[in-house]
Protein 1
Amino acid sequence: MGIGVRAEDIYIPTFLDLFNLRFGHSLSRDPASPNYGGIAEIAALQREFQIFRGGRPFVETARLLGLGGIANDPAKNWWFEQLAKLPHFASDTSENGDERIVNALIANLARDQPLPCSMRAHDGREMDASRVIVSENATPLFFFDYRNYLTISLPMRPSTGSATQAGSSGH
């Protein structure tokens, strides 16, 4: 089980990159600085507006933050449909996939110095890998090996094909 990826969904890396840019390392915590952004800006938005909240699906905040891009409405809408399925995914804790992401982001953003975040995908065709995985103090970008990140990994798989997908549907 995993998010069923279609051959034409070449925008998925772009969607992951949008998250990674919005939640990435901040060069400045000062809103007046031209280098302000990333996790410092998201943490400020969280303090001011509670953009992540228990009971609010991750997809709704993703919509609010424009994490579906603006270049391709069909691809954006498909991406949001997939994110809306996260409550049906297991996670690396007792929470469902959606709760795991939202609660991890809430806890991270409440820190005095939140970790930058990275979203990626892993092969969800194997049953033991078909869950949302969140890890702290990961180094997803080897060229930033001195930086720890909160990493969110989504299970993805081709929408058709492999025998390990038996019983799972495409979208």
Note: The helical segments are 12-22, 38-49, 58-64, 73-83, 97-109.
Protein 2
Amino acid sequence: MTDEEVRRYLAENGYPLHVVQAGREGLIRRWREFVEEVERGYEYGLEDYRNDLDLRGVIAMAGLDHDVADMDKRLAAMLTRTDVRVWESASQHPFWDFGYPRNASGPLLKDLRRAGLTE
């Protein structure tokens, strides 16, 4: 997808204006920031985590997998319980929809437990 096509998709699917305007580069930047947040210790709850996974689904749909391959490797290294699906952000079975950060704590861990997704 071209940057204009990405922006059009985001606008047509109700994403906030700042996300639409940031386009392709904004998606990639936000995914990098999410991966860094996970590495440091994700401070938000399960709903926010799932919203961030939706972002990765949009990246896949836009054909930008190559642009985030290194970040994907970093995220995959952080995940545990990869047999448990925590969200459905894209068709098929993308790795990012399975498992959760091994360093999960605070609101995320609490929500994961409440949803029955932890050991």
Note: The CA atoms of residues 57 and 94 lie 8 Å apart.
